[in-house]
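Lab channel / #folding
Pinned by the channel admin:
"Please post every new chain as: sequence first, then the structure tokens as a reply. Keep commentary short and put observations after the output so the thread stays searchable."

First post following the new format, from NK:
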Amino acid sequence: MEDLNRTVPKLPIPGKRNILITSALPYVNNVPHLGNIIGCVLSADVFARYCRLRGYNAIYICGTDEYGTATETKAMEEDSTPKQICDKYHAIHKEVYNWFNISFDEFGRTSSPQQTEVCQTIFKKLLENNWLSENTMQQLYCDTCERFLADRLVEGNCPTEGCNYDSARGDQCENCGKLLNPTELINPRCKQCKNAPRIRDTNHLFLELPLLKDKLVNYIETTSVAGGWSQNAIQTTNAWLKEGLKSRCITRDLKWGVPVPLEEFKDKVFYVWFDAPIGYVSITSCYTPDWEKWWKNPENVELYQFMGKDNVPFHTVMFPSTLLGTGENWTLMKTISVTEYLNYEAGKFSKSKGVGVFGNDAKDTNIPVEVSDTLFTWSDLQAKSNNELLNNLGNFINRVLSFLAKPPGSGYGSVIPDAPDAGSHPLTNKLAEEVGKYVEQYLEAMEKVKLKQGLKTAMSISSEGNAYLQESQFWRLYKEDLPSCSIVVKTSLGLVYLLACLLEPFMPSFSAEVFKQLNLPPEQASLCDEKGDMDKAKRPWEILPAGHKIGTPEPLFKELVFACVCLCFDVDGNGGEKIEEVEDYRKKFAGSQADRLEREEAGKTAKLAEELKKKATVGGKKQQAKKLAGEAKSRGTVEQEISITRLDIRVGLIKKAQKHPDAESLYVEEIDLGEGDCRTVVSGLVKYIPLEEMQNRKVCVLCNLKPANMRGIKSEAMVLAASSSDHTKVELVDPPQSAVVGERVTFPGFEGEPDDVLNPKKKVWETLQVDLQSNSDLVACYKDIPLTTSAGVCKVASISNGSIR
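Reply from TO:
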């Protein structure tokens, strides 16, 4: 996260673009969920990484928001003190963000002495400039708990017409987004004891926003245009102004917070909306004692702030008003990046309710969470991971590097060839023109903080690369026109480098691995040259030098999901997909965190009961079991080698094929494998092979996969097929017509018996499948060894260099 080797903090540099980046401070009452991470922290990190690659002088500041009612509430729930809660969850937040590889320059906390100092200093300036007033307000008081109830200690029905949400908090309705006062709630109740509170008078301090309106409106009208504010930020801000600014209370009857430095208010603290944004400043002061060079330097520093849409008014109205009221020359926000809510399956992520996938959950899945959308669903993650990362990006890079790494005679021995005539190669020039346009679009999108558009544009370059490889037919050029092949390979390697740079802000671990495989230091990643431009993208064949030796190519992404079911070539993710692991995740993370904990405890109890039951029934066999276990241990166990012979591939005859009754993209086949009874197999081939071509046809069948239920029908094997690199074409692997039904397909030079059933946990099929492909002669091969029957080799109709699965 932070740069542990940092010795000198970065300060603004005259003549350079100095960019100060913040993301909304995550509240410390729970583990951050993907809504928090993607909506604020990850988006800001993407932009910060982009800025650094462009050569801008940028720092990224964030930290945990630790004061306020929510912390006190969590402390009561966990029978702890607020400080203990903050210490606990701050550490968890740091661990989660570290796993996500977030590149903070400083990740601090608002319970620091610096926060108290900066917050109280700003308050005194506001008081001195007469922007504060004292008023008596009516507040809910719980006689049972003997305390005033702060906003988040009260729940009730939202008073907003058309909403009436029954769990609205005293400060804001989570359903409609309306900011509230606790006394406005209908049927309010104390969150702790559930009893109805009563209204009681209490004195508080208010920030007079109406008096600051002219200064604020001038700032908004100027900056919203210059900073390119998003439409949702402008609409939310204008709605506040149209409704009319009101005095806002800045103090609360709490113990946990920044103390109000006035004798008559010594028992009160600052309201969290007032002190939390000041946390950006205080955390920067922890980063450098010269923090004012960042925060009081609007002529030389641009402030970019990232947040969810519910935080907009605090950053476009409240925080600017606070800073403007001091009369000092503050660096005010230039650009605001607002993320819509990230919804989870059928509902909204909620940290307070524990609904959704949380940062620690993401760690447990081992899925690289680097693809996001407004709606998070497990099936969507599966589709994006498999189609965009594995089949598009990963496929392009691996094809290029693997081909280069082949020994001379079939490749280039890992050494980049020279390509002196690349500039006059028509297909390459066409590609370079398209890539140059995409890079310009990428830079324009990223400068405007349109991150999703930037990512989409970068991925389009990968698609162009795949099309370039396919159209050039480089595998044939190698034998027929080596100079042209060298142009294609060198140009493609330039695209690999370019993609690693363009995607580094989004997928830093991916880029680091690509640079490793290119045998280049990751520090060489850059999105500008000495002049600050990207002209090299228009000449990708010049990016990497001839004679450079690359490292060892390896697959960059794994398929999600790996449960062994049936053929999976449905790129739309509708039927035929390998859904078991995705379904496991959906079930695992269903409900709230409390629900999950309850299920986990119930599972432990059931497991313990089962173990006790076994112990009770084993009886006299116990000693015999111990003896057998000891003998097994003494003999030792040897992990079986993953060899192609462990696959039981046989010649089968489709006796009957029909469409799946409950899945439009699936066929159900009855296949004769020489066993007497036919096996039922479900295959995702409807989009690729007409039904009439599936009848009475010999096929190659993988027979020892674990059976799996596919939309209500058990699939007992898998038909092998080859797919083109862009997955628009799929063909069955055909054994010779005279091959014997039921005979085993062999691989000359490999001997051994197949497993009875492949263990999905050992990933035998997944490990071997990556080396199954059709060659340039259309022969189905495993590492150049043909799939062989007694009647000859197995082939495909027209797809060369296709992936077989």
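NK: The mean pLDDT is 84.
TO: also worth noting, The longest helix spans residues 378-405.
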